[in-house]
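Subject: sequence -> structure tokens, single chain

Hey, anyone have a minute? Need the predicted structure for the following. Not urgent.
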Amino acid sequence: MSYVDGVQGKTLEVKSAEFEVTIPIGVSYVGAFDGLRAIYTKSKNNRLRWIRDWLTFHVEEHGVNAALIYDNGSTDYAPEDVLDLMTGVQGLEAGVVVSWPYKFGPQAGPSGRFDSDFFEYVVGSDAQRRFLGSSSGVIHADVDELVLTGDGRSVFEHLNDSKTGYLRYHGSVVEGTPTNTNFNQEDFSFQDFGYVDPQKALSTPKWSCLPGRLPSNVQWRTHSIHGMTTAIYSGVIHRHFYAVSTGWKFRRSATGLAKDWWAIDQPIADALQRHL
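Reply:
Had a minute. Here:
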């Protein structure tokens, strides 16, 4: 396990008639993830318990054995605290926490839907080129998302069976109303929730891939890999836990009463019972 704060290496000089710039080339850590099944994400002030449970779930459900977390300037704890947490997750063989204290960018337009994708695209490209390029498989998921297949096999088994080594799948929103009657607002996690609204549309897609089977000129992005087919795969649906959030973009606290037409998402409830 390691904590990365800054890089050292050779430089790249770009010269033109208008400007001249020297850019440092970052150190490659691809070897640290060689042949491993990795999960990666960005995070800012997510509760440490959430991160631990998120890692534990994917280690036990899918056989993840490596993790890459970009800490986006958390103020509630230091990146080293996330690293200490990772070392305590049984089954993780490698892990890196990257200090990534850069501005996320403005949220604009109706409901803030025009995201500043440049931030996330750079994170994806850094993960792709600097860390995970030789890993045997990669899951991309936010800390409030748990990936689950429909047949109980790991997402990596589904990837091995795929034609391209790339799967893009929808998410299902797990509502923020607790199912746990002993709910503790100060100390909760995924297993406290389980309601889904059958009438609600599926949430934005996420993806997993086998890097060794992808063309070299594709780009890892937030909801897809640019350059790969964008078809949705139905054998995997990630669960997006609405209340597992610090509310940094808009208020997403655990409140409210269950609606009459809501149902319990039994597959994710069973999975949480197994792992957490």
